[in-house]
Amino acid sequence: MADPVSLASGLLALVIFAHKSCVTLYTTIQSFKTQPKRVRDLVDELGELVGILESLTDTVKSQPDAHLSALELPIQRCGNACEEFLQELQKCCQRSGDDRRSFRDWAKLRYMGDDINDFKDSLAAYKSTIVIALTDVQLRNSSVTLERLEGYKDLIRTATNDLEARLENVDAKLESLLARTVTSSETAELHRIKDERLSTQRCLTICAQLSELIDQVQPTLAYSASRDSDATPEKITIDGIQQCKTSIEQTTARLERRMQEILDRMIQMPAVAQHEDTEYLARLREEWSTARQCRDICSKADQHLQENISVIDNHATGDEAVQFLVSNSQKTIHGKNRGYGDFIRQLGGHLSDQSIQKVSGDFLQMSLRRSEVKVSTTHDGASINSSHTNEGATNWQPQYGSGRTLKAEPRPDVAVSQGSSSRGGSD
């Protein structure tokens, strides 16, 4: 197993390279006097990316054992893309003959066949992937608020959808390039490569559809098994489906390696090597690999949320409510206990099964004792009320407690009469 410090050193070097490339592109575009809105949006995206890379640098330095090695390929591709885009910008300036004060041909600027908006979206994908990886590290080491956790889930979903769309775009470009190459160089080997690539892509699509179907079925089966402790068929099915999903993941990994080999063969083909799109194909291959790596990072982060984090939001209204916010495993808990009423009992934390049962029993005993006190108080009040009624007192009801009997006091008019007699007698 590789040394964490060595891995961190390699990743740190890539982050420094990517940061330098982003800053250089950022300052270069900023130096142009004319900046349309899409160019300003690109500058804003670059500025945010620079800030995220700085946060990543701090994390790698302070936590060399953090699980961030998966970011190596996206970080390297991010730095390369910024350098290559800067080269295209400089070429565009030379062709137009304008300097940075008068340059206005932003609409003609192209990188890998895409315009400025597409390049900005690719940078946003890198930024989202880095944010997801950093947040995943933070969740492993500390807790966050429930609101932020929900925002993190939304970020994963959005980033995954954007990366899927980017993969489709790259696949379409590969198909178009391969079609042009085969047309210009009619060789049997190129035809075989094209057919194999299409077949591999279809198989990857099938695996993705099966995995999505399993994700939809699993929660329903898990819920049925949780309701019935003897639900052996459901448990057997869950185990089988999980094995199937594991097999699909392994198959997908093998297919993706196969696709890499196909792209490598395409670049090394003599007919393709003579074609003007060789460098473009190499970039597409790198972009294809990076997009899939970013998608895997998002998938693993989402899996970590589902397997290792419990999100609980308890809300109770009424007297003597009981709320549990506990875990008997190593799952991280993110949630709230909110109760409104008297004598609410709440429990939170990581506890063993025995501790949970003990506290549950204590809560039950507390509730029973309060019920006994209520019954006793009601009976005492009823007895006092009956006694006062028999003595001819008013029909007093124990609405504000059991009450107590007051001592007899002399009436004021009697006291004045006795005083007068004494004084009269002394006279």
UniProtKB/TrEMBL annotation:
Residues 1-18 form the signal peptide. Keywords: Signal. Residues 2-208 form the Azaphilone pigments biosynthesis cluster protein L N-terminal domain. It comes from the Eukaryota. Residues 375-427 are annotated as: Disordered. InterPro entries: PigL_N. This is Azaphilone pigments biosynthesis cluster protein L N-terminal domain-containing protein. It comes from Paraphaeosphaeria minitans. The lineage of its organism: Eukaryota, Fungi, Dikarya, Ascomycota, Pezizomycotina.
